[in-house]
Design goal:
224 residues; 3-stranded mixed sheet; alpha+beta
Length: 224
């Protein structure tokens, strides 16, 4: 009879000399060429080439779309900036044009020596303010007449000028850059018209028109 102590004892280690060797099994190779484990499986080369070509095509399309959107944005920004500048110039033009009668009154008062004291300070401040906005005054006696810059109110002739010249400035002209706000209103003088000297014919001189004329003899008939 065996005791519980004998049944709990571990079996004795096997003797390698007496125990037969256990056969070892090697993993069979995969006929499809796949490798077990963590190594990636490579796809076929034609399939990989097609995927790469498709990816490059999509990349080109997306790049073209991005470039087109960028060009549209740049053009839009330029157009907005240009429109904003035009609106600003138009507003400045309207305000300055409404102040021209006031500037004309200041010029007339200055010609009569009435710009003094506090009125002079106000006039000078106003002229500095409009000049800071780009308003330029032009027009002086002796300037060559330019129909793009001057408005002729009266014409006269003078031997002292060789071209049409501004003689008197009725109202000064104003412009903003190259844009004329109001042309200068002036009186102008033109050069004296050139007339040909009269031809004096001496006595006995045959006019040139008569030298080439042939006088034909007049036939006479005898009457019985």
């Amino acid at each position: 009879m065996t005791s519980a102590r004998d049944s709990d004892e571990a079996p004795a280690p096997a003797d390698p000399e007496t125990e037969p060797a256990q056969p070892t099994t090697e993993p069979e190779s995969d006929p499809a060429g796949e490798v077990d484990g963590d190594e990636p499986v490579l796809a076929d080369e034609p399939e990989l080439t097609d995927e790469l070509a498709e990816a490059e095509q999509k990349l080109g399309e997306l790049t073209a779309d991005l470039q087109r959107l960028q060009a549209e944005y740049v053009n839009y920004k330029r157009r907005v900036d240009r429109d904003r500048e035009l609106v600003k110039q138009s507003a400045v033009f309207t305000v300055l044009a409404s102040l021209l009668p006031v500037l004309d009154d200041i010029d007339r008062a200055r010609e009569h020596g009435e710009v003094e004291g506090g009125f002079k300070a106000v006039a000078d401040s106003l002229e500095r303010a409009v000049a800071a906005l780009g308003l330029v005054k032009y027009g002086a006696p002796g300037d060559e007449f330019d129909p793009n810059l001057h408005e002729a109110l009266m014409h006269a002739h003078s031997p002292d000028v060789s071209t049409t010249t501004c003689q008197h400035i009725v109202h000064a002209g104003y412009r903003i850059g190259a844009r004329v706000v109001r042309p200068a209103r002036v009186t102008v003088v033109d050069p004296e018209p050139v007339t040909a000297p009269p031809v004096v014919e001496s006595a006995g001189q045959v006019p040139a028109a008569d030298e080439d004329r042939v006088v034909e003899p007049v036939e006479t008939t005898d009457q019985d």
